[in-house]
Each structure stands twice: as C-alpha cells, then as structure tokens.
Amino acid sequence: MADITHLISDLHLCETQPHLLKLFEHYMHNIAPESQELYVLGDLFEVWVGDDHHTTFNQNVIQLFKNYSQQYGQLYFAHGNRDFLLGKQFASQTGASLISEPYHLILGTHKTCLMHGDTLCTDDVEYQRFRTMVRNPVWQQELLKQPVEKRLAFASSIREKSKDEMSDKDSEIMDVNQMSVEKCFVDNECEWLIHGHTHREAHHQMMINEKKHHRIVLSDWNEQGHYLKFKDNQLLSLYFKL
Question: How many other CB atoms are there within 10 angstroms of residue 157's CB atom?
C-alpha cells in the first residue's frame, strides 16, 4: 500500500464558527485516517494566545489530533500568522512535531518546500514589520507572561486593526510577490512550493533557470474544507462538504 500524505491550512477554527469545527471533525474522522502523514501549514486557529488557554473547544481539537497521531500517522504543525504561539505543550498533547519554515521534504520524486506563505507577501511592508515583531522569541515570552484575558484582548484588538487595514489595501499587496517566490525556489532548491495564507487556491507553474517549478496554494476552509493529497507521485487538490 502506497504511503499517503495530506496537507491542510487556514482552517481558522474558533468557537463563533461552529460549522468549521464540524467540517474539521468530519475530516479527522472520515478523511485524514487514510493518510500516514498530515501537515498543518498554519492558521489552524483563528487565534491562539498560548498553550495555557484551556477551553473545552481547544481540548476537543487537541483530542482529534491526538487520536490521529496515536492511531494513524505522523502529525506536523507549522506556525501561521494567527497561531504563532502554538508551543511545545500543544505539540506534546497532540503527539505532533512543530516544524519551522521553510520545511524541506521529498514527496515521491519531488523536492518540496512547505511554508505558511506570509513571508512571500513582501509587498505588504507593514505586515512584514509586524510579523518580525511577533515572531521574536523575547517578544513572545513577554506576551506569554500576561494573563490569558489580557492576551485575548490584545489578539482581538490586532484582528480588528487587521480588518481595517485590509479594507484599505489593494488585494495584490496581500498576495505573494513573484520575485520572492522565485527566490524561495532558488534558495531552497525545490521543485514544488506548497503554502497557504493567501486563501487563493491554485496551482501555478513557472520556468526558473529553464526548469519547470510548481507553486501549489491551499484554500482556507469556509463552507467547504480543502486538502492536498499526495499518492502515487501525484498531488491532488480536493474539496469536501458535510
């Protein structure tokens, strides 16, 4: 039996969107078990303020992942711009490995690079400055010293600010920069680049140094879920509904 790898991204799970949890439960119970590896490429949660934020909702998500890692396959998490505070405790509880980006692996015969995708959006200079700040380990440690309630209030204010800024930004600014994409391919010596973040599901092909390269973008989850399935040296983009 051939090994199967799944990749998902941008679920944005939160208690105020119960249909997303139902989609996720369906995926973890009925679809994910066919795979031997599952990669979550960031923004699993709409917000994650620290592994010490214990709620029934969060525990349900953790348990679903734990069931997968104990019964079916290996589990990997990359940080997104919404859940950059996912830590070692979360990884331990789910039985997962935290991966840093760019993350290199071989899918079949293809040298592949995985990332959330926000680092490719270099035209959004303001966001890149913010990202540099919040990914600083010292900044994160100081934030995690604050009570959970204060962290939740901070996250809420950041989300509101982000919504206001997005309404004023050209949509192309929030997409990837082509030169950054090409540099990523060259620097990582990869044939495939797989990422999320932009919510613009697509399969782009480009020629770099007279060689064909592929950039595969994962969709966010909304009325339907989306995942990539790698089997028999083929990568399939699949949607599902309840």
Answer: 10
